[in-house]
Amino acid sequence: MAKSLSFGQYYQAKSFVHSMDPRVKLLLLIAYLVTVFVVSNFFGFALIGAFLVLAIIFSRVPVFTVLKSMKGILFLIIFTVILNVFFYSGEYDRVFIEWGSVRVTDSSLIFAAFMALRLSMLVLGSSILTLTTTPVELTDGIESLLYPLKLIKFPVHELALIMSIALRFIPTLSDETQRIINAQKARGGDFESGGLIARAKAMIPILIPLLVSSFRRAEELGDAMDARCYSGSKGRTRYKRLKLGYRDGVGFVVFAIVLAGVIYLNGAFVALV
Amino acid sequence: MRIICKDLTYSYDPKKKPAVYALNKVSLTINEGEFFGIIGQTGSGKSTLIQHLNALLPVQEGFLSVGEFDLSLKDKKKYKKQLKELRSKVGMVFQYPEYQLFAESVFDDVAFGLKNFFPNLNANEVAQRVANALNAVGLNYYEVKDKSPFDLSGGQKRRVAIAGVLVTDPEVLVLDEPVAGLDPAGKKELMALLHSLENGRRTIIIVSHDMDEVLENCSRIAVMQQGELVKIGTPEEVFNSNQSYAGLNLPVTVQVNNLLKERGINLNCNFKTEQFICDLERFFKKTTNN
Amino acid sequence: MLVKKLYKWYNNTWRKIKKRNLKKAFCKKKEKMSAVKLTNVCFSYDDEINAVNNLSLEINQGEYIVVLGRNGSGKSTVAKLINGLITAQSGSVEVFGLNAANKSDLFEIRKSVGMVFQNPDNQMVATIVEDDIAFGPENIGVSREQIAQRIEFALNATGTLSFRNRPSSELSGGQKQRVAIAGVLAINPKILILDEATSMLDPVGREEVIGVIKKLNKENGLTVICVTHYMEEALDADRVIVMDGGKVVMSGTPEQIFACEKRIEECGLSLPRAAYIYNRLKERGVDLGDQQVYTVKELADRLCELFAKI
Known about the structure:
- The complex is a heterotrimer.
- By secondary structure, chain B is an alpha/beta fold.
- Chain B is built from eleven helices and ten strands.
- Chain C is 46% helix and 19% strand.
- Chain C has a six-stranded mixed β-sheet with strand order 6-7-8-3-9-10, sandwiched between helices.
- Chains A and C meet through helix 7 and helix 9 of A and helix 3, strand 6, helix 4 and helix 5 of C.
């Protein structure tokens, strides 16, 4: 049951990307996302796409698993593409179809293709990070990157802990949800038919037990943490130290080359958008 | 209602190769009015099996029928059409059922299933049937009906949850680990309660990993292991076979019997504790009198 | 004057030092040191019924205690009181001489009292086993190298070394509870409390956990307080405590406790099945010897002896 949650779920393997420093992966992801949005022609996309492919290959995560993360966002992508194909209002050279105010032009097609590419690359890139980085590493990385914010009394440690606990409970709660759904289904609960309001109402027998049980779990977890001497970030040590390795250097260099290429290509060719 | 299961096979991840089967060619028949026990370790497939009985899991391979309902129908429309009626007749009490309570009052919670299955019942009929269900689980209708289910004690909550399933007067009642987490006295009471629900026609199926519990209470037992049915029969048939079941502790009386057998003493006793004691008593008294 | 004062001061100090040394020496001599001491403790969750009612109890270091009682008898409340998760409304709870009512001592108490709870899913903080075990030692400020050693020790002691890098959600109930024990061991406690830690497990899981606990008690000298309603678990205890209505109603060796069948049943508990069979047979005049039987093996042995006689 928990296995359907591919997005944000760690894929266990030993690979180049897996053993990179989570901070580096996070920073690279941010840089990658920005790059994906500044790319202005297909050559640039090819280059950044090559980087993505490289990352997938070196992560040793099966391509299918990576692609599965698109499932949730596929609808959004299709929706954006349709919207852009028909309603893009920029300058254009050729018109393919014109129907009142709705027009399909060469630039609307290109723009829609760009949007689709951008969104999918965004999702694929992010899922590479979450597939190769355990939630714990991820929160460690975020905590470490946010460390300077401690100076302005931002509760960095608490935030990281909350995130890590939330991630830890995803499989537990998803199993629990399935159990409750089954129990109410067996009592004739119907969650699939009826209008929006009827469906929302039908969710009550699921949501209330889930809420009650989450509170119970939270309370018990609180006790367990207290019993294990948790008393905030003060005086706390860390077992795992994040260490930069040669892989992180390689990652940076490769990305720098890609970035330089993208910038060069952006200048060398006419921006399509 | 008679339950017939032939070569029932199920996998949670059918695309995976090599396939991992939660159920592997399980064939069994459960007769009307039986108090049937399904026993197995965690992950042996017992929960998967019972979820098939009221169509919470679809039949992937094999045949399954519950009374007049054919659950291996390939015709999706026909299959779906019978679900509601099937579920009203096959009651399913999950593990820790108290965690599924949700309504503001005990009455509403118990009536939930009834109103889902029979939306045309009038208020009087609903009240009557809720009262019957609550009384059947040993709770006083007038005392508890307006209480919030969350204010009850743990044992009472579990009873309310069972009442919420009993309210449709199901012909088959399936309970997954009904006594889990209860203390010895609570276990005894709940088991006695389940026996009081027998009426000759109603089939009661309990799922457990406690061999003693199943032995004491069930007329027939199925033992599951890694998705396969390894043994089925009366307690005598299941435990007389010198078979050990990995991951399960044999009942105490069977263990005693086996230990004596190893030393060449054949008791030939019934394994139910009270019977076992009587048989032993008779055996010794007879031999001393001779 | 001054001399007199000095002399007095000298004398007093000397006496104090002597007294302290004596005390120390005395403590060392006493073999069984008290680990937990509850005196006239009362606690209620909602000011109506006392969950724990004027309870006094002393537990010595190295003891293996099993606390039995029906649901709602107050046994879990006692466990929480010892760890300072809740504070007694009256009476005192002392752990190695530290008072749990003192907020300043609470941290020290929790360091020496580890606790494993009922639901294995609700006590893990981190997704990966190793990270979860590190949580405790991190909290008490252990250095990185030390944490690594402690994790190694805890994993070995609980037989969970092979799960080290796995997510806990993939483990079975018994494995999860062993990881939970490892997480507590890494804090290096002197007392281990199991609050119905086996009640959600199947027989295999239960045996795994009890096996680990017994080993820790025997080999590492850990004081174990096991709260349960599985009677079979009580057979291995040094001392069994039966609670009902927030009070200790019986206390003694398993033999002493199981000799009182009626009282046990009044407390909502039942004898181990082998002992039950022995008692019934005895009542009906089948002579299996006077010594009470507890285990399956003992019962089989006695039956065998009787056969030999006939």
